[in-house]
Amino acid sequence: MRLILLGPPGSGKGTQGDLIESKFGFPKISAGDLLRSAVKQGTPSGLKVKRSIDRGVLVDDSIILEMIKKRIEGDDCRNGYTLDGFPRNVSQAELLEKADPELEETVIDIRIDDKTVVKRLSSRYICSECNNIYNIREADPADEKKCGRCGGKLVQREDDRPEVIKKRLAVYHNETEKLVRYYKKKGIYKAVNGEGRINEVFQRICSLINEIYRQGQECEA
Ligand code: AMP
Q1: Is 13 annotated as catalytic?
Q2: Catalytic annotation on 186?
Q3: 120-156 in CATH: which number?
Q4: 8 lines ligand 1 (CB under 6 A)
Q5: DSSP SS3 for 5
Q6: Which residue's alpha carbon is nearest to atom 19 within ligand 1?
Q7: Which residues of the chain does CATH 2.20.28 include?
Q8: Splitting the chain (221 residues) into consecutive groups of 10 residues, what average pLDDT does each group show?
Q9: How far is ligand 1, taken at its centre, from the CA of residue 32, in Å?
Q10: Quick one: fold of 2-112+162-213?
Q11: C-alpha–C-alpha distance, residues 88 and 100, integer Å
Q12: Residue 215: what pLDDT?
């Protein structure tokens, strides 16, 4: 199964993708992480990518598509994978279907409102080494904190600054949200309430995944 996690920035796609990977075994593929690692390598295309990320706009479809295609060719993706942050527009969705037509697709849209997006992203820190995500309250100085998983330094993402958050939200509403209609028409769209604690949202997602599996088994029987 190819599980596509939809939702605005800060809706928890990355965190939930990791939990899904631990429980169901589908590797999580994060478009943002792939792009940020290209930026770290400092190649000419990495520089171009950095400019787009820092402005909060989408990078060219062809650049991200190539990275996704290469990643899903991995042996670990043969039986399925979870996509976090890809596709982000209808043209990417169509290209993905052409690139990997074999797998059945399911979409889970993690819904939160814009106020929650701003609140969550302004207190989000990531590990500069392993990309693990942390939420840090003002009272808890982040520069003294290290990643609980690998000991790396916690940093705030450049694109989690208020003016870039605004732009990313606009891109989400103008481009990515069109995918809701697109996937509803295909009959593979499900939504969960993304407000609340990580574990509460995860339980909602697990119920949906179990329901999808049950339906699949009923079809086979
Ligand atoms: P994320 O880590 O998912 O919040 O993504 C961070 C940034 O990476 C986005 O604001 C975009 O600039 C870029 N990006 C991530 N995924 C895509 C995608 N599928 N298509 C184009 N740009 C993307």
Answers
A1: yes
A2: no
A3: 2.20.28
A4: no
A5: strand
A6: 86
A7: 120-156
A8: 97 96 96 94 90 97 96 95 98 97 95 96 90 74 77 91 95 98 97 97 96 73 53
A9: 5
A10: Rossmann fold (3.40.50)
A11: 17
A12: 77
> Is residue 168 annotated as a catalytic residue, yes or no?
yes
Residue 51 annotated in active site: no
Q: Is the CB of 168 under 6 A from ligand 1?
A: yes
| Cα–Cα distance measured from residue 93 to residue 210, given in angstroms and rounded to the nearest whole number | 24
Residues 6+ apart with CB under 8 A from 187: none
Q: Is 181 a catalytic residue?
A: no
Tokens 């290290």 correspond to what residue?
A: 146
CATH 3.40.50.300 occupies which residues in the chain?
Answer: 2-112+162-213
Q: Whose CA is nearest to atom 12 of ligand 1?
A: 53
Both tokens of 101, joined, read: 């037509």
- pTM of the entire predicted model: 0.91
The verdict on the CB of residue 59 being under 6 Å from ligand 1 is: yes
Q: Is the minimum distance from the CB of 64 to ligand 1 under 6 angstroms?
A: yes
CA 183, CA 167: separation in Å to the nearest integer? 24
